[in-house]
Write a structure and sequence with these properties.
The protein has one domain: Rossmann fold. Helix content is 41%, strand content 14%. The protein contains 8 helices and 8 strands; from the N terminus they run βαβαβαβαβααβααββ. α3 packs parallel to α4 and α4 runs parallel beside α6. The longest helix has 27 residues. The structure holds NADP nicotinamide-adenine-dinucleotide phosphate. The site of NADP nicotinamide-adenine-dinucleotide phosphate has 32 residues, from α1.
Length: 246
């Protein structure tokens, strides 16, 4: 890898917002490590970006597996001795089970991807991130993890009765703040793909394409945080319009 090229690893890069972030950062000339838990889907996605001229390495990566994450570190190390940016994008929506019916097993499966996943991946890639001059970690969170949003009766998610997904993103937000405080040499920030003020989100498979924003609009907050400079913020939560309340 060219020593001057910025590198990024994107989990769940094979489709949706992860794929669009990969496409946009690839257009900037960055080296894209495209994480995908399914090798076939990952290869197909990487092939599309490579055909468009991007520099892409497909990385088999299931964020719920320590073994898979360790394999991803080994593969990335074959290409580079540092990682500039990590985007913890992979996410699971869960089954939208009502709180009265939610079981620990149901919650656990969602947390394994949305909470333990970003910790697994961040922890494993810390040495490569620390070797970068200006490392950044972007956590792809959600407005439904925000207390301010869920307590606002005007927000549709105030009426969404479920436990797993929303609380997993709330946990991810605090995890991000904790990392930001403990590791000032790395910038850790949270992005939600929507526009909180306009109650919008991005159309992807996760929401059966009910979102009103495009994936390009949905990735504005993610790309924005991935490309912050050395004087940029750490420990903040933004949507595409700017900082939002926790
Ligand atoms: N769309 C929105 O407006 C919106 C709003 C708020 C937050 N988000 C967040 O944005 C992120 C991306 O979601 P999306 O909307 O782009 O949904 P999506 O199109 O369903 O993409 C989800 C991605 O996560 C991957 N993934 C799921 N479990 C994984 C695992 N265990 N290991 C590795 N990858 C895994 C999926 O891989 P497979 O293809 O193999 O399933 C897929 O690549 C998620 O964290 C989501 O919570 C999205």
């Amino acid at each position: 890898m060219d020593a001057r090229t910025t590198s990024v690893l994107i989990t769940g890069g094979n489709k949706g917002l992860g794929f669009e972030a990969a496409r946009r950062l690839g257009e900037l000339g960055w080296t894209i490590f495209l994480g995908s838990r399914d090798e076939g889907r990952g290869r197909a996605a990487a092939g599309k970006l490579t055909a468009g001229g991007a520099n892409v390495v497909m990385v088999p990566l299931d964020v719920t597996s320590d073994e898979s994450v360790a394999g991803a570190v080994r593969l990335v190390k074959e290409h580079t001795d540092r990682l500039d940016v990590l985007i913890n994008n992979a996410g699971a929506p869960g089954n939208v089970v009502a709180p009265a019916d939610a079981t620990a097993d149901e919650i656990h499966a969602v947390y394994d991807t949305n909470v333990y996943g970003p910790i697994r991946v961040t922890h494993a890639f810390l040495p490569l991130l620390r070797a970068a001059e200006h490392p950044r970690v972007v956590m792809v969170s959600s407005a439904v993890g925000s207390f301010a949003v869920v307590m606002d009766p005007e927000q549709p998610s105030a009426k969404l009765h479920e436990l797993a997904y929303s609380t997993s993103k709330t946990a991810l937000n605090m995890i991000t703040v904790r990392y930001a405080k403990a590791l000032p040499e790395i910038k850790f920030n949270c992005a939600t793909p929507g526009e909180v003020a306009n109650r919008t989100y991005a159309a992807t498979d996760m929401n059966n394409h009910t979102g009103r924003l495009t994936v390009t609009e949905g990735t504005d907050s993610i790309v924005g945080l991935a490309t912050i400079g050395p004087d940029g913020p750490t420990g903040i939560f933004v949507d595409r319009l700017g900082p939002i309340a926790w």
